[in-house]
Design goal:
Elements (H helix, E strand, L loop, with lengths): L1 H13 L5 H17 L18 E6 L2 E5 L3 E8 L2 E8 L10 E7 L1 E3 L2 H6 L1 H8 L2 E8 L3 E5 L4 H19 L4 H12 L7 H9 L10 H17 L5 H18 L4 H18 L6 H15 L7 H19 L1 H5 L4 H28 L1 E3 L2 H24 L4 H28 L3 E3 L4 H15 L5 H18 L2
Parallel strand pairs: 4-7
Antiparallel strand pairs: 1-5, 2-3, 3-4, 5-8, 6-7, 9-10
Amino acid sequence: MIGLILLVMIVLSICKIIRWQIIVVQISCIILGSISFSQIPRTPLKEGSVRCKNLQGQIVICSLKKQNKEQLNFIAVIDDIKYMVYLKKNNVAYFPGDTLQVKKFNIKLITESEIIDNGYTKYLVENGIKGQIFLNEKDIQSVNDGHGLLRMAYKLRHRIIQQIQKENVLSTTEEGVFYSLLLGERSYLHKETREDFKESGIIHVLAISGLHVGILFLFVKSLLKLFRVNNKHIKLIIVVVILLFYSVIAGLSPSVVRASLMCSLIQIGLFLENKNVTMNIVLSSALLLLLFKPTWLRDLGFQLSYLAVIFIVLVLNNNNESIQKVTHPILKKIVQLLQVNFAAFTGTFPILILNFGIAYAGSIICSMLVIPLVTLSVTLGLTTLIFIQFESIFKLLLYLNQYLIQALLVSANFMSDVISIPISFEISIVQCFLLYSLFLILFINKIRFLTRIKALAVISTCFTISMF
């Protein structure tokens, strides 16, 4: 993966899309990330190495994984060992940082046979989790509230969910989609709904990401334009504050923080009245995040989001002249949407195949059909949250949201049955590297024709050889 990123940046530098100074800084970040990265030990703990029976004491909620009315899943650290804790509860809310005083609990260590036979336990061990703890609410004697920004974010999100449930407008299925689209809370999402979106190749719309932040960014800028807010200082403050607030109610999800940082940098560039190079902004946000947490370089979500954005920027920049030739405004938007979907699919296709061995070719068509609905849903949903303190308006807007969500559910169900086209095959890291090289050569218009042909021939030959 490091070689792939280096190749992308070198090619972008050669084609004069980004400056060589940025390459030097980015390489420094990659080296820093590689040095600071420590491989998580994937071997399970041996029986007798830790005490597992008839334990009591405090369990601190380090990070939440799932929370609804009946179930809470969270990660806890006991004696420097990470455990996944499952708590059956009855409509009681817990947040990161809270300390549970438990009168009795047992630890179930993950065995080697479970890692081989069970994909979920393999996932746990790969994330450094060595065992599981199962609790009931009756086992908890007391709870000491924690503190911190993350706890505040989850508590605020929980209050929003409570207010929506109080109105009793949305069904449980519709609630799951609404919370996923706006708050990044997928604990309420039904399994059947998740499968429909997954098989359609559009599961990404249910996970708050750069798409949702981009919609919010454009929505805020449109409102500022509508109300004729022209003062650049006020514009900067409003955009950055709203993006920060959205990051908080989304639980400070890394993907949301990344996208919010990127949009904030764009707005700062407009404030400074500089001619922004979008690729520089994208890579600058990556630089800041890697300085904060270098190990994100190996995070799949980080890789997918930045590869998608890099390819979107490349495709739009290299086809800007052809887009400008389209005079009809609606047709122009359709052409841009087609290009964005194609670029995002191309940018993420090799890395998805490398990690999962499967991708959905129909996701391009499905995204074209569903993203307008998602845009309307996110825009209306955010407007709904603004009026959360005005009961009558809030309830009316929830009914409007219900119709959009129903349309989204029907579309996902239809596309999973008709349009979904799964592509399954495996590639090596070398072949993934070669595929990205091939796509970059094809998309960058500044490369001379003969140079392009030679490069494509060399890459195609190397890819063919690597298959044997």
